Amino acid sequence: MDNWLLGFKLKQMREKSGLKLKDVSEKVGISSAFLSLVENGRSGISIGKLQSILDVYGKKLSDLYEDASESNKVLPLEQCQKLGYDIEGISSYILLTDPGKAPIFPVHFRLEPGASIGPITHKGDEICFIIEGEFEFIFENLETGVIETYVAKKWDTVRYAGDLLHTVTNVSSNPSVLYSVIYYTDVADNPHLVPQENHFHV
């Protein structure tokens, strides 16, 4: 499990326990600043300190790798497959177990400050929902040459056609998270059913 996914799980456990960073750090004997770095995936942690944190939540190491429910109605983020968008400062996970069978393609993106997705175009339309931070969206109509720029903050939603050349940049000073959902009028446009180069155009 990489540092970011580990931190995501630990933050979930802490928030479900109703504890603050200070509460946990004092019990474990670490600083609140260090625990914050761990939860945000910006630092690793020793197995001993990790176990001490889990003890505070009444959890075991195995709970970090808990399987999804048998009904497959719940898909923990750490079990999602990576999108394969291998650019420094970007983590991306596909939020479906069988994305090739769906008319939508949902992805969890986490961008470090200054990191950008694109410029790209793709089939289908796209909706982005900002979970944390602030993003700049730049759209270019390749037929008219018109360029539009927007800034979206936490809880904002951005919708656009995938054939617009678009670039998405984290313009905040902290890691930012958005959920992107591409939806298709024809499921055959799903990139898991056709060669990737026929879907995304960078």
From TrEMBL:
Residues 10-64 form the HTH cro/C1-type domain. PROSITE patterns: HTH_CROC1. Pfam families: Cupin_2 (PF07883), HTH_3 (PF01381). CDD domains: cupin_XRE_C, HTH_XRE. Keywords: DNA-binding. Gene3D superfamilies: Jelly Rolls, lambda repressor-like DNA-binding domains. PANTHER family: HTH-TYPE TRANSCRIPTIONAL REGULATOR, METHYLPHOSPHONATE SYNTHASE. This is Helix-turn-helix domain-containing protein.
